[in-house]
Amino acid sequence: MREFAKAFYRSRAWKDCRAAYAKSVGGLCETCLKAGLYVPGKVVHHRTALTPDNIHDPTVTLSWSNLKLVCQDCHAREHKGKDRYWFDDDGVVHPR
Ligand SMILES: [Zn+2]
Ligand SMILES: [Zn+2]
User: Fold this and answer.
1) Which ligand number lies closest to the CA of residue 50?
2) CB of 65 within 8 A of CB of 17?
3) Which residues surround ligand 1, an ion (CB under 5 A)?
4) What is d(CA 12, CA 29) in angstroms, rounded to the nearest whole number?
5) Ligand showing the shortest atom-to-Cα distance for residue 48
């Protein structure tokens, strides 16, 4: 269980960052959009995965260049095979 990230996902800084980022990309899944599909984005994904070492580094956790708005399906795909667990956009941990 990646407890280290829970406080971060519940923080005001992340919630504000996530909302502003999602708005900046128009609220659509960026992966689906590349395929010409208009699907509402549900999860703001970190391109560089959060770890206990970078969780307090805002250039990783809150930098827009490290974020990607995706739908649930695309988010699951982003993490497939890479992580044992992933977080939804409320910081809820899901095993895979
Ligand atoms: Zn998608
Ligand atoms: Zn993710």
Assistant:
1) 2
2) no
3) 29, 31-32, 39, 71, 74
4) 23
5) 2
Contacts of 7 (CB under 8 A, 6+ apart): none
Q: Would you say 42 and 71 are in contact if contact means Cβ atoms under 8 Å apart?
A: yes
What is d(CA 82, CA 45) in angstroms, rounded to the nearest whole number?
14
What's the gap in Å between 77 CA and the centre of ligand 2? 9
CA 74 to ligand 2 centroid distance, Å: 9
Neighbours of 3 (CB within 10 A): 8
Provide the residue-wise pLDDT of the chain in tens; the chain has 96 residues. 367 888 898 899 999 999 999 999 999 999 999 999 999 999 999 999 888 899 999 999 999 999 999 999 998 888 876 666 666 656 666 666
